[in-house]
Amino acid sequence: MTDTKRPLIKIEPSSTDRILDMTAILGLLFMVAATAIYYPKLPQIIPTHFDFAGKVDGWGPKWSLLFLPALGAVMYVGMSIAARYPHTFNYPVPITEENAERQYRIAVSAMCWIKMEIILLFTVLDWQILQAVLSKDARFNPAIVLAFVGAIVLTTAALVVQAYRA
Question: What is the pTM of this model?
């Protein structure tokens, strides 16, 4: 079966997928709420970039903080829509009538995991920037970013292995 003739199967999200989705929504809501609450208290210029030691090495206007919640919302919506069309994804194995449902379930689950991890990363980044500004200690913990990036890489690797095994 060619990639253009993949079976069209509607995949219902599992209970785990729903929990991951709700976690992403809560993270997104927290990020939006925290930004809205603290935005009026922020100075006109805020830290926008930190080096590997957690020290500020870039400054910008306070409206630049709106980028994380906005990008998070766009990514949440985009990834949620994409998850409805697993037959269009790239797979590490050929998709057949026999394996399509298993592969699509793994792909939808992967989308839920990665969406949640990215949204929570953005939420933590937003919160850390707010805390750095409001506490007047413009520092950032780079280990948090590395932990999230590591989690995203490990999740992706685990799901690729799962796809090969399925």
Answer: 0.84
